[in-house]
Amino acid sequence: MKATQLLHNLGQSIWLDNITRDLLNTGTLKRYIDELSATGLTSNPTIFDHAIKNSSAYDAAIADQLRSGKSGEELFFELALNDVTRAAHEFLPTYYKTNGVDGWVSLEVSPLLAHDTASTVREAKDLHARAARQNLFIKIPGTKEGLPAIEEAIFAGIPINVTLLFSREQYLAAAEAFLRGIERRIDAGLNPNVGSVASVFVSRWDVAAASKTPEALRNRLGIAVAMRTYQAYRALLDSPRWQQVFNAGARPQRLLWASTGTKDPKASDILYVKALAAPFTVNTMPEATLKALAEHTELGSILPADGGDCEEVLAQFAKAGIDIDALATQLQDEGAKSFVKSWNELMEVIKSKSAAIQKTARVA
Predict the structure, then answer these.
(1) I need a labelling partner for 85 at 20 to 30 A (CA). Which of 25, 54, 240, 265 fits?
(2) How far apart, in Å, do the first and last CA atoms of the chain sit?
(3) Is the pLDDT of residue 350 over 70?
(4) b/e for 43-64, b at 16 or more Cβ within 10 A?
(5) Per annotation, catalytic residue among 139, 274, 337, 359
(6) Which backbone phi and psi does 101 adopt, to 5 degrees?
(7) Given a cut of 70, is residue 363 above it in pLDDT?
(8) pLDDT, tens digit, for every residue of 180-218?
């Protein structure tokens, strides 16, 4: 049996961390659903930048949007909404079969708004309304300014994928924002069933700490941080406060593992997937990692609910001079800046493609 099926049987959702129009047009996404147990999809500015820059599949749609008077960011979101709504349609059977637990796709607000609470909430509401898909998450970064936006969006009934989380503390802050939004809905007499996932990035830890990491600890930092976060997740789900909102009809915010593609060429191609196998979680994988997982026929042990040896491992990293808290803050800040960089590059791609298309139209 393929390891993708084994992971699905374990109770962990496999989501594809990619979207392109070619993926949709060729039926590849449907094949991943049918053959590789994919039950959801995530996107981000970097993914869309690569998708539009490296394909001509968007050119006709760009031309149509230009004729409608759209440009720049407005034009991009028309393209992105087309892609994610098509993907959402592909996952609707999963969404209905799981009563809304699974079958989600994600679209991120502009990363330029990462530190602007009010604008983030406005854009989240606008994108979700325009998409008109019940199985669409709007991604909001779990930055300091993003947390109140997450609470407000949840209170407004908008399903949220909290992104750019790197540590237990950042995860707990995001979970608190989600919970406050749900509790406010209960107090207001509203339905508390609003979907959410909290996305914790894993492999970037090992890349960032590589120069200081002793050989014996190579590629173990991201997994140890994830194990510590998973322990907090399990404890939180069992807490009286969360049990109370669940009893009122709320659904738990699931923990999602992001950035799970192996970066070290010397390591296993499914290093992070095997290490983070756990029920009632999500692993969103790059396309290469998903296909690599399908080539394997075993997984290994399940992630321990008590965090296993994570504290001992993290103590060894501290002895090596790695400040976990400081690095978590650095990684979140760098992640936000990286998405801004990709966004700006994406806008340049839209601008240059628009100019080329308009020039061709004038010549014709």
Answers:
(1) 54
(2) 55
(3) yes
(4) bbbbbbbbbbeeeebbeebbbe
(5) 139
(6) -70, -40
(7) no
(8) 999 999 999 999 999 999 999 999 999 999 999 999 999
